[in-house]
Amino acid sequence: GCTSRNEPGESAAPGASGGTEGASAEGLTIAFVPKLQGIPYFEAMNTGGQQAAEELGFEWLYQGPTTADAAAQADIVRSFIQQGVDVLFVAPNDPNSMAPLLEEAQAAGIHVATTDTDAPDSVREVFVNQASVEGIGQALTDTLLEAMGGSGKYAIVSCGETAANLNAWIEVQEEYTASEYPDAEIVDVVYAGEDQAMATQMATDLMNSNPDLTGLVGECTSSAPGVAQAVQDAGRTGEVFTVGLGTPQSMLPYLESGASSGSILWDVEALGYLTGWAGVQLANDGDLGDLSGVDNEALAEAEYDEASGVLLLGPPTVFTAENAGDYDY
Amino acid sequence: MTAVTTPTTADQRREPSRFRDWITGGALKDRAVLLLALIVVLLVAMAILDGIGLTSGRFNSDYLASTLIAYVPLALLALAELFVITSGRGGIDLSVGSMVSLTGIVFAMLYQQVGLPLAVAVVLAVAFGALLGAVNGFLTAYLGYPALITTLATFYAYRSIALVVSEQRPISGPEISEFYSAAKAIELPVIGGGLPLVPLGVFTFLLPVAIVAWFVLNRTTYGRKLYAIGTNDTAAQWAGIDTRRTRMMAYVTAGAIAGLVGVYTVAQFASARPDAGTSGSGMALPAITIAVLGGVAITGGIGRLSGILLAALLIVWLNASILLVVPGNEGAQAQLLALGVVLLGASLLSNATIRRRQGGLAKPLSVPGTAPGAK
Amino acid sequence: MTDTAQRTDPAPGQGPTPRLEMRDISKRYGGVRAIRHADITVRPGTVHALVGENGAGKSTLIKILAGAERPDTGTIAIDGHDVSIASTTDAIALGVQTVYQEPQLFPELTVAENFFVGREITRGPTIDWRAQAPRMLELLDTVGLDRSLASQPLGALSIAKQQQVSIAKALLEQASVLILDEPSAILTDAEIEVLFGVVRRLAADGVSIIYISHRLDELFRIADEVTIMRDGETVSSQPIGELTVREIAERMVGGEIAEGVHKEGEHGDLVLELEHLTLDGAFSDVSLSVRAGEVVGLYGLVGSGAAEVGEVVYGMRAASSGRMRAAGDDRHPATPSEAKRRGIRMVPANRSSQGSFSFQPIAFNITIGSLGLLGRLGWVSPKAERRISDDLIRRLAVKTPSGRQPIGAMSGGNAQKVVLARQIVEQPRLLVLAEPTQGVDVGAKEEIHRIIADLAERGTAVLVITTDLAEVQRIADRILVFRSGRVAHEFPPSASQASLLAAAAGAVDDPAAAQTATGQPVADLPGRPTPGEEPR
Amino acid sequence: MSTDTVAPAAAKPLSLRRILPPIVTGQEIVLLGVLVILWVLLGIFTPAFLTPASIGPLLVQVAPIALIGVGMTFVIITAGIDVSVAAMIMVSAVTTARMLVAFDIPAIAAVLVAIVIGAALGAINGFLIAYGRVHPIIITFGTANLFQWLGLRVFDSSTVNGIPSTLEFFGRGGAGSTLGVPHSFAIAVIAVAAAWWFLRYAKAGRNLYAIGGNQNAARLAGIKVQPRLVWVYVVTGALAGLAACMVIATGTATLDQSVGSGKELQVIAAVVIGGTSILGGRGSVVGTLLGAILVQTVVSGVTQLGWPTQLGFLFVGIFILVAVGTDLIRERTRRRA
Ligand SMILES: Nc1ncnc2c1ncn2[C@@H]1O[C@H](COP(=O)(O)OP(=O)(O)OP(=O)(O)O)[C@@H](O)[C@H]1O
Ligand SMILES: Nc1ncnc2c1ncn2[C@@H]1O[C@H](COP(=O)(O)OP(=O)(O)OP(=O)(O)O)[C@@H](O)[C@H]1O
Ligand SMILES: [Mg+2]
Ligand SMILES: [Mg+2]
Fold first, then answer.
1. Distance CA B343, CA B337 (A)
2. Which ligand is nearest to the CA of D227?
């Protein structure tokens, strides 16, 4: 026949080359498909994953689409299925669309899991979560309102209109602000896409149309420096405070100048490391809750929730002018 | 008195070899043959690479078949572009991606939220796509807007509307998740046992549309009228063709096909995304690129279904092959390189061969299949 | 410079060095051998006519001289020196100025700008309009165009005026060889007289002129020598006085030409009746009728409004007022497709822009006007298509190896036959023909006239709208002379050319006035559509 | 209908004004009117709109679009189009940014680098279009992919961090403007003025209209069409390079690979709103500048009014149709008259 799918043991045999049992990671291939390549966030996860690969001795594959596009991402996932990797991690652009594909991967004998963004209604075995939705939303709100003095008007500059995780964080921010900071108010949520210049312009427009605005949130890694830049350009550092989810290197100049009061993120490299480690555990049917063997202090607070299948990195980190320089991404 | 008659000496030109003549004249001129040759070259090259172990995964028919899931929307939208570009007068549709997003949302609302039966929801979504296309068509054909401008405007407008009506959240739910079965790979009945699993969308979406489109383009008076208005609009008026209605129908057709792709993407992604057709670089530019690669003349009047189907297949398989050969981020980047090289190479090559054969026949510039016949 | 005495020197090849010698020129387009081993010698200060059937290779030959095409073989010598002409720029530098068959102009630019495109007089980087203007205005006067046109966008001018602009433009720089490729095809007689005056003056100044035309009679009034081409070869070259029109025509086609197509006969019912029909800005109060089997000629100078009558009858434009009764129906057809349903067909005047689907096959071009015949319910049967087109290709003697050839590669006359074929796929009740043989050679003209007579004999009512006097006399049963948007007079075909011309030029009862009238500019009415412009 | 009625053949003096098209086109007046109305309305409904703090950044945002719009207007006048400008911005910006970070080159050198890279990429477009004789939209679709690949290779899967403020002269901040006029916008205006003069009075400029009106006739008239076309695309590339400097300066200290994306459609939108005919042969750079300002006004206005930002582009779409529609109507009445 024209197909090899009826010949067992061909593509449907993960780890055919290694096949070693036990705790060893030798010969394992673990693949990770990010939402988008080339942005510091996912490249840092890649760095962490590679570090884990070196230390634990598996092969780490990383390939992402050039645009944050669900269809392009699916093509890459399909090629990894074809390559017969042992474990496949995905940070899905669109959780719903990834679910059937993960099912296909599992049927081909591959361990499937998500990281960074979950695909809740899928067959994924574990979700490696950087921080809880509540944790991020609350940290953003607390950090900003601390700078704003606990009251005032602020606005959010988000990115892709449809990004599920950003929208979830915004929801938490809205609820948490209403409940915890009655004197504070979110006046607007705008969407700038992945375009820094657009984020900057929108932040400028927001400051102009709301003269009493004292806070801005940059909801993703491209708008976080964008809003800080807008405040700096307008010469209103110290009057308008910003926080955002920015990578340390891109935020460092603004943290130092005071245009940004803090960047809420987590140790992204550690997240990559944790992903790699979880992959090894999955392949060996190991215990995801047993992090005792892990020699990485950034993972100290990681914990596994068996019921939901979520492996949590820990609470988010607040980067400030003092500690942002310690990270090289 | 002096009748200066020149002696007619025999033609001294050497007859070019038949094969060379066929290659430079007939074969490369015909875009379908060129594309087919490229596909064969690609498959052979990949088989060799696979044989000597340079690919990271097996390059086999299962893989090629599984990538067809991405082939369906690409080929369909390129077909939509074929209709509008062939209608001439600068016909082009930049809004197909936005129409995909918007009809996908409408379909999901009707199917998931209103709870209409699947068939009804599909028909309504396609009709809605046709309506969106009719807006383009009316502005372009009846009010005289240049198509690039009409569809640039509706690209922005439809995209906005899709985001606003969906409150920028994807629509999903149990019915829609199940609807994935319309796109997923299946075993062909009867003969399927020995063949790879082919995505169902190829049969439920692409094949019927392609067959209908082939007949419309080649065997109906509408097809004749479409090619006529694309070749020479004024002459078409003089020939008694209702050029406006014919042109309008091209945009309506493109809208309806985009509507169908909207439904398909809902199945493919198992959710309706308000940015399904516009995220990243969007679906319109790739569709136009495929159409052009498939030999559709941007000046109108020329374009064949076979070119579209083969061009889309070439690109889908080329992209899939690259992912197996080039690891890491470079792989996804190399897809851009490959698309650029193939597009430029094919248009420059076939244009050069046409020019060599037909000397100066000015119009059209980059069109295969039309060199005035020697022979 | 050469004096005019030499123009009477009868023997080519003698006397001083020829101004131009083209030897052994060949050119192929793919498989089409447009020219094979053509030779032409033009002496200084002479007008050299170049004639030949459609597709004989005249335009190709002069395009090679003008640098617009490269020859495959052959040499060109100017004033005895071999030259290489690789581009239009080279040709212009050698003093070769060209007026192409299709005016090569810029519709969005003004007439003034059109003059100087490519050879602007500059002061620093900017164009020096003050330096350019006087010469341009002088040239507008020379060709008989109004000076106020200088500031008009060219696209707003009639096609005839555009042609005059392109002639004037060629005079801008001192030429040693001036090529005129069918300059007279779309000009009125008065405009042609002006053109002839210009040509004579230039020749007297020593300029050599190559003059291509299908109006053989006019050549005797202007040309000194004639070169005849047939099938890409130059078959003879001699002083024109040695030949008659008939002899030239016979050499062009390589055989004898039959005479006369006009037949007397009974005419049937009224098919077309116009009563007080008016189209604002074009014609007014036009009443005429055409019976089945009758050929009515509508003769008028360019811009007389006759052309628009056809467009209204065919539904391309809506009349402003008046009554029209066509094919038994009182309504004006609103669109050509409605006209078609009622059996009205029209062959437009401009075959390339209004008639041809250039890169579509001949069969497509023939059947596109009668798609209903190709199958039922919007279906197209390739077999029916082939049957219909092959039949017409045969009946009209279209020269082509097969119906699959694109029409764009055909010569003018053959393309015209294809456009005509489209309208007679089904025998029409009323056939309107606008300039049916413009730019068509004598052989093809003959055939087209015979086809028209044949259709009339089988009961079609024919309305021929033409600016060609000889044509209307040959084929019409009745001739309506159109002037200033009105029917000025009706004549039998036996009327003298002089009286027809006089009526068209505005001096109805005085044939002597016709002569003087032709020498003067004739008032044009606005309203002739420019090519490419959409009707309505 | 045509207006070539016979007038008495009196020798009237012919003024320069009558030979060239009117100094200000109807489209420009309409656009100016629409802009004034919009600004007044926005001034009324959002008190802060008509303040320097709002107008300044808006004009800075307009500058790169208007600047590339100048080149794109040239291109479209010649009946071409360039959909690769976004990719050219990307390549130019990332290379320049990398050099700023690595070598701390001075501003003038950075600007030169950016322009030279843009011009080189434009030359690739120009040569392929002029000598390959394939429709420009096809060529630039192809090169857009190539340039994007090139840009991504230069990015090498990371962002450029810590870009020094060398180019702040073009920026949004205090150093980016003099007497309240942003430098980048001033540069765009100067480019527009120069291009206006060039298109109207210079031989090479007028010839672009001829090429766009009828390329074959232009060739027969002895215009060196192909070198001119190459030059037009080189200019567009060079301007995209200069615009890349503005993009770096108005962005943050970090540059990521989304830089430039979507700009090609924005530029084309500005050009067509400005009244340049997509069919070639007709167009104005002043219209392009006004078109660019209009688009940004609509987008910023929607944000400032507090309307959902997703609606902004709906209005952009409507404005494109309205602006081009008025042009169509005027054209039609002109023909009827
Ligand atoms: N660009 C072209 N491509 C292919 N064939 C061509 C081309 N131009 C001309 N030909 C062919 O070359 C031959 C000579 O054409 P040419 O235009 O020189 O004829 P002509 O004598 O000027 O005819 P007419 O009187 O109709 O203008 C014709 O058979 C024509 O079909
Ligand atoms: N304003 C300008 N800015 C930049 N480059 C220009 C400008 N004007 C002209 N050039 C460049 O200089 C070249 C020469 O232009 P110029 O108008 O002098 O041509 P030319 O030598 O007179 O050509 P032609 O023979 O066509 O008249 C052009 O091809 C163009 O590349
Ligand atoms: Mg000719
Ligand atoms: Mg001719």
1. 10
2. 2
CATH fold, domain C258-343+427-495, is: Rossmann fold (3.40.50)
Residue B87 lies in a domain: yes
- CA B344 to chain C, closest CA, distance in angstroms equals 23
Ligand 1 pocket, residue C470 CB under 6 Å = no
Tokens read off for C487: 């029917």
What's B180's DSSP letter? G
Owning domain of residue D148: 51-261
Q: Which residue's CA is the nearest one to ligand 1's atom 25?
A: C54
Assess if residue D183 is contained within a domain: yes
Is chain C in touch with chain D: ≥3 Cβ pairs within 8 A?
A: yes
What are the DSSP calls for C57-98, one per residue?
SHHHHHHHHTTSS--SEEEEEETTEEE---SHHHHHHTTEEE
D171 domain-assigned: yes
Q: Which residues of B touch A65 (CB under 8 A)?
A: 280, 332
Q: What is the pLDDT of residues D292-331, one digit of tens each?
A: 999 888 888 888 887 887 788 888 888 888 877 877 777 7
What CATH number has the domain spanning C1-10+19-95+214-254?
3.40.50.300
**Is B353 inside any structural domain?**
no
Residues of B in contact with C358 (CB under 8 A): 231-232, 363
ipTM score: 0.79
**pLDDT tens-place values along chain A, 329 residues long:** 455 555 544 443 444 333 333 456 678 899 999 988 888 888 889 999 999 999 888 999 999 988 888 888 988 998 999 888 999 999 988 888 888 889 889 998 999 999 988 888 888 999 998 888 888 999 999 999 999 988 899 999 998 877 778 888 999 999 999 998 999 999 999 988 777 888 888 899 899 888 889 999 999 888 899 999 899 888 888 899 999 998 888 888 899 888 998 898 888 889 999 999 999 988 888 777 777 777 777 777 788 888 888 888 888 888 888 888 888 88
> For ligand 4, a single-atom ion, which residues have Cβ within 5 Å?
C 182, 439
CA separation (Å) from D97 to B198, D93, D113, D144, D176?
47, 6, 10, 20, 18
Q: Do C127 and D203 touch (CB under 8 A)?
A: yes
Residues of chain C with CATH 3.40.50.300: 1-10+19-95+214-254, 258-343+427-495
d(CA B110, CA B117): 9
Cβ of C60 closer than 6 Å to ligand 1, yes or no, is yes
How far does the centroid of ligand 3 lie from the alpha carbon of residue B359, in Å?
16
Q: Which residue of A has its CA nearest to D303?
A: A205
Residue D298, domain member (yes or no)? no
Widest CA span of chain D, in angstroms? 74
The DSSP line for A24-41 is: --TT-EEEEE-SSSSSHH
* Domain-located, residue B275: yes
* Rg (chain A; Cα; Å): 21
Cα separation, B81 vs C462, whole angstroms? 43
Domain membership of residue B28 (yes or no) is: no
The residue ranges of DSSP E strands in chain D, in sequence order, are 177-178, 181-182
C-alpha D204 – ligand 2 centre gap (Å):
6
Number of domains forming the structure of chain B: 1
Q: Does residue B372 have a cis bond before it (omega within 30 degrees)?
A: no
Full domain range(s) for residue B186: 71-318
Number of C-beta neighbours around residue B159 at 10 A: 26
* Predicted structure pTM score: 0.81
Task: For chain C, list the contacting chains (3+ Cβ pairs, <8 Å).
Answer: B, D
Instruction: Supply the DSSP symbol for A232.
Output: H
* Number of domains within chain D: 1
Domain contains D81: yes
HSE, side-chain direction, 13 A CA sphere, residue D77: 31
Closest C-alpha among D302, B164, D40 to residue A209: D302
- Quick check: helix, strand or coil at residue C170? helix
